Amino acid sequence: MRLLADKLREIWATPVVLDNRPGANTVIATQAVLNAPHNGHTLLVTTSVTFQLPYLIQGLKIDPSKDLTPVCPITMEQLVVLTQATSPIRSLEDAVSAARTDPQRFAFGSLGNRSTSNLAQAEISRQLGAHLIHVPYRGSAPVVQAMLGGEIGLTLVNYGTAKPHIASGKLRPIAVTGARRSPFMPDVPTLGESGVTGFESSAWIGIFAPAGVAPPVIQQVSEDVRAALRSQDIVQRYADFGQIAPQMTPEEFRTLVASDMEKSAKMIRAAGIKLDS
After folding, report:
1. How many CA atoms within 13 Å lie on the side-chain side of 157?
2. Are 107 and 153 in contact (CB under 8 A)?
3. How many Cβ atoms are within 10 Å of 276's Cβ, its own excluded?
4. Spatial CA neighbour of 146 closest among 108, 176, 102, 91
5. What confidence tens digit (pLDDT) does each residue in 20-72 have?
6. pLDDT surpasses 80 at 246
7. Is the pLDDT of residue 250 over 60?
8. How far apart are CA 37 and CA 166, in angstroms?
9. If you count DSSP H runs as helices and E runs as strands, how many of each does the chain have, helices first?
10. Average of pLDDT values for 175-204?
11. What are the φ and ψ backbone dihedral angles of 137, each rounded to 5 degrees?
């Protein structure tokens, strides 16, 4: 968002203030936006986690599908399933077979409880019939270090974090999320090709307005953000991180968010994952 904010300052000829509000699984930031005037001047930048909360927390005081209006995604990337390059594992099928034989050796490290990688671990176990032991870490950097140190046998992280270790030959990618193979790793099959459905969407970060903002304002903000995302320097910087700068209208983004919510709900219920309210 910092990259994008510089471009938007030029387009809007006005300051763009980034107000980081971490905590409570995005609830604090979301509530701050909902409490601000609904005039399009205060927007939420968040991930799909916000839209999983209704299925994770009982008595949640916000309803993202009703309280937030999708504007547009600002970045999209495919997540990658990794193992150590020294491992004999070369496919998800190999990993599942090994996990059936020696579950402890092929524990699956995630980015934390209730993360997308936690859902992937649960779905791989459920759909392919192998018990992958779940080991949560606090973010992508710690889980990658755990993989490099041999603490875990598998993980799912964003490509940008894993990229230098893949390039150095220390980590081996064996599957990616998304409907198609990654342009950065065209030889690596998707999870769908590997027998695991439900991860056809790429991971995204998006902009949302509070409900009630006038549709013309939503359209204008979306057009301006998409214009900024077409800047060659942003496109190149995103590519360096293994990400793309998407060009989705509010209507297209709304469809994507709704689809992701439906898939997440099914996986969360199947895995029995809950958060304390």
Report:
1. 33
2. yes
3. 6
4. 108
5. 999 888 999 999 999 999 999 999 999 998 999 998 888 899 999 999 999 99
6. yes
7. yes
8. 46
9. 11, 9
10. 93
11. -125, 170
Q: Tell me, what amino acid is at 102? A: D
Which domain range does residue 211 map to? 2-76+202-271
152 token code pair: 């875990």
Q: How many domains does one find in the chain?
A: 2
Answer yes or no: do 25 and 102 share one domain: no
Residues in the chain: 277
How far is the CA of 133 from the CAs of 24, 110, 221, 272, 277, in angstroms? 26, 10, 44, 15, 26
Q: 69 is written with which tokens?
A: 């209006």
Beta-sheet pairing, 108-110 with 134-136: parallel
Q: Is there a single domain that holds both residue 93 and residue 166?
A: yes
Measured from the Cβ of residue 164, the count of other Cβ atoms closer than 10 Å reads: 11
Q: How far apart are CA 178 and CA 121, in angstroms?
A: 16
Strands in 134-136's sheet, in edge-to-edge order, are 134-136, 108-110, 154-158, 79-84, 171-176
In a domain, 277, yes or no: no
- Alpha-carbon distance of 175 to 198, in angstroms, equals 14
Q: Comparing 23 with 8, which gets the higher pLDDT?
A: 8
Q: Do both 89 and 165 map to the same domain?
A: yes
Q: How far apart are CA 130 and CA 117, in angstroms?
A: 16
Residue ending a domain, among 141, 176, 211, is 176
Amino acid at residue number 124: I
Domain identity same for 62 and 88:
no
